[in-house]
Amino acid sequence: MATDGTIAIDVRDAVKRYGDFTALKRISLSIRDNEFFTLLGPSGCGKTTLLRMIAGFEDVTEGAIFLFGDEIETLPPHKRPINTVFQDYALFPHMTVIDNVGFGLEMRGKSKSDARKRAGEVLEMVQLSQFANRKPAQLSGGQQQRVALARALAPQPKVLLLDEPLSALDLKLRKAMQIELKHLQRDTGITFIFVTHDQEEALTMSDRIAVMSSGELQQLGDARDIYERPRNMFVADFIGDTNLLSVTVNRVEGQSATCRLASGHQIACDAVEGIAPGAYVHMSIRPERLYLSEPGDGYLSGTVLENIFVGTDITTIVEISPDLRLTVRTSNSDRGAQGIFAPGTAVAVHLEQGAGRLLAD
Amino acid sequence: MAGGGTAGGGPRTDTYAPVRLWLLLPAWVSLTILVLAPVSMMLVYSFLTKEFRGGVIWEFSLSAYDQFFCNRGLFGDEPCSIEWTYLLIFWRSIWQAGAATLLSLAIGFPTAYFIATRPARQRALWVFLITIPYWVNLLIRTVSMKFLLRDQGPLNDALLGLGILSEPLSIVNTNLAVQLGLFYSYLPFMVLPIYAAVERYNFSLSEAAADLYAPRWVILRRIVIPAVKPGIVAGCILVFVPSLGSFLAPDLLGGAKTFMIGSLIEEQFKGNAGNWPFGAAASMILLTMVLILLLIFARQQARAGNG
Ligand SMILES: Nc1ncnc2c1ncn2[C@@H]1O[C@H](COP(=O)(O)OP(=O)(O)O)[C@@H](O)[C@H]1O
Ligand SMILES: [Mg+2]
Q1: For the domain bounded by A7-233, which CATH number is listed?
Q2: Whole-angstrom Cα distance, residue B187 to residue B130?
Q3: pTM, 2 dp
Q4: pLDDT-based confidence at B307, cuts 50/70/90?
Q5: d(CA A195, ligand 2 centre) in Å
Q6: B138, B247 in Cβ contact below 8 A?
Q7: Among A116, A244, B199, B255, who pairs with B116 as Cys (CB 3.0-4.6 Å)?
Q8: Where are the domains positioned within chain A?
């Protein structure tokens, strides 16, 4: 996404404590203008807390938040040009759809008729024009979700916050909304901060992702960074499926390194800053970067335990040694040439160039 | 009720049909004894002729209503012109009850809101505290109120002692005293329904409104109050209706100028000077007014439910 590098939201050393419990442990992040930014992490890691601090619903225990350079953490929510799409939508039940959407505009001083006019345009954008005069209770969940979106977009905020907006929708609708949200972000040019615990959703939608766990920022980067170059065990494990192996680093030469498995096998991989020879660390290998062949010429040899059919792919579990099992994923279209190795057959497991990723912790 | 057993239209039989009538009996009996019988009696009495030392003569007469609405001069032989005496008392009662209701709303709403926004475990305690004074008999509470408001009472002593006043404030025997008395008598009836409504209110609506640039008072006016309106209306009715017919507070705290409909009715049935048919007629008129009020309320609730 085209961003000119301006920082929309700058969170500096933000700490949030509830009594003795620290929900956010000194988080710093910069979110660029015009960016689709995602906060990703398991439930309870503090995503909502961070979002609510940006919106102004929670005090910041320590630290500061800047919006385009202005310090905002002490402003009340109604003075921040930031809007939120709430997880439970929070639509005003006694108002019609169009009045819901026009509410923010009216509060910003637009006349009732101007507000309705603009609200009508935004409703058109989310394809809800024909429901303008209904009450929220007369809409389906997906429609309510779009009203919430329209309501938050109507006042043209500088930043839009979305707290797991799609989690209540069924899979098909969710996929459609993911695309629609992405388009809306591109068309409006508004900075989106999107919260989700669904890593797949995060990977498909985001320009950049901040992975969080237990109140801490684990890694910040674009989808490829996070998927292909996870920084630590948590990120490698949380994003997609992976094989985690314990290795000892043998040699580091410039950009490349060699590691040894407990079984004695050698694996070449990229060097990672801060990991020196002799270190005993974890290595992450994505299942789709492994492949199988007839035994004999293999790098690692093992026995097929199980084949799991998952639609487009087939997942094969191979036992290398009693304490090492690898998951190998083969696309169903590739499999034609290879055939399926039945459980019990001996196979060789190959590693793509650069598939092993060393993890700092 | 009777059709309940065959609602399915099939061969299902209502096993409980014989028992059901018996089970409903207590409800019917109490409704009959406590509501239907007294109201019918009042209705009948209001159309009878008065006996001079209280009681009635069983002879149809419209004179009770005539006395209420018609002024027929000193000797009762002139054509009917509007009788203002009782209408004025009615009007005063409405006014007093309305003022007491507004006062209860002004104090009761913030109180209810406060309680409903405490942590869940504290709420029951607050509700309990609110209701404690109401374990004491209303008469005693009203007399205590008079004691509090007296010229030499604690309220005036405190205000004088603090130098806020230089002369005691005469509250007793004024409209204000009656309003305060009514307010104090029925405050929980305002607090409890509003509390129940605010407790059910989804506070993320307030957050959403704040997020959309609404300052606090706009949130209260445009979001919170419409959402808890049924509770407010219920509270107002529960305070207004008993205030309207109340006689303890006006009798004890008020004077001749604060005479209310409840006292008027009470007088008609007390001692030998009373006029039972007239008291019954005044009660029926009061009852009709209250029923109209409740009907308007029910209408509004139904409309809110549809919307
Ligand atoms: N008001 C609160 N009081 C105490 N603890 C809270 C409060 N709000 C959130 N928490 C705690 O803070 C942590 C982070 O919560 P939250 O930000 O909602 O997580 P997420 O949105 O990532 O699921 C959780 O452990 C939660 O229990
Ligand atoms: Mg959350």
Answers
A1: 3.40.50.300
A2: 9
A3: 0.81
A4: very low
A5: 8
A6: no
A7: B199
A8: 7-233, 241-359
